[in-house]
Amino acid sequence: MHGRFPSHQPAGVHHISHRGGGLFDRCGRWASRDRIPDLGVVVGLPAIAYLIEPSLKTVASDTWIPLGKLENFEIGKPSLVTFTRSKVNGWEKSTLSYGAFILRKSQDEVTVFSNVCTHLSCRVNWDTDKQAYICPCHDGRFDSTGKVIFGPPPRPLDAYATKVEDGTLSIHLLES
Description:
Elements: H1 36-56, E1 61-69, E2 79-89, E3 92-104, E4 110-114, E5 125-127, E6 132-134, E7 141-142, E8 148-150, E9 159-160, E10 162-165, E11 168-175
Antiparallel strand pairs: 1-11, 2-3, 3-4, 4-9, 5-6, 6-7, 7-8, 10-11
């Protein structure tokens, strides 16, 4: 018999079409239940990739943050400035707070330190009486140039790269 169905199949059994990777028989019905897991793979893998892909992206930020006019910062007195940055990490959007101490040493010379202790990342504060940056967590202390003078901090305060353009002081911020 050279008709629509092979001779070894009874007349009530339909031949499964594999052309084009279809999962239907010639009558438009599902071919068989054992082929249904293939559909899960075909639909599931791209869906999983769509959901996971944003979390695998790591975006590094490399930008200059303006802190204000240099003339507004008093010579010899550390001044705290704060700023926030928004960051998108996959599906999550967060706002990060930053702080920096500006130490203007002369008319043209300025250093900017992070206000984050190098021990356990607590925020340091300038104590005018002690002439030091004090960490409230473990009593770490740094002198006005950011060097460790007491306590557990393993290294000096981190200093930012700076530039002054048109009288405005900016710091170079690297985020990962």
